[in-house]
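FORM 7B: Structural annotation worksheet

SECTION A. Query
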Amino acid sequence: MSLRAFHIIFVIVTVALSLYVAMWGFTEYSRQRDTGALALGLLFLVTAAGLCVYGKKAYGKLRDLP
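SECTION B. Predicted structure
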């Protein structure tokens, strides 16, 4: 597996994990009304969005490499 493929796969897995943790935080907030869980959900939602932007830019740059 090339370093380019590993990087793209790693970004995709990290986005999926971030979305899962965000969903878990929102679920915990809806059950217990814990603001820490809401903050965790929002933090990981923003992280997932940032990783999507990063992944799109990285894919564009890595696509041109041999």
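SECTION C. Observations
The mean pLDDT is 94. The chain has two helices and no strands.

SECTION D. Sign-off
Analyst initials: ____
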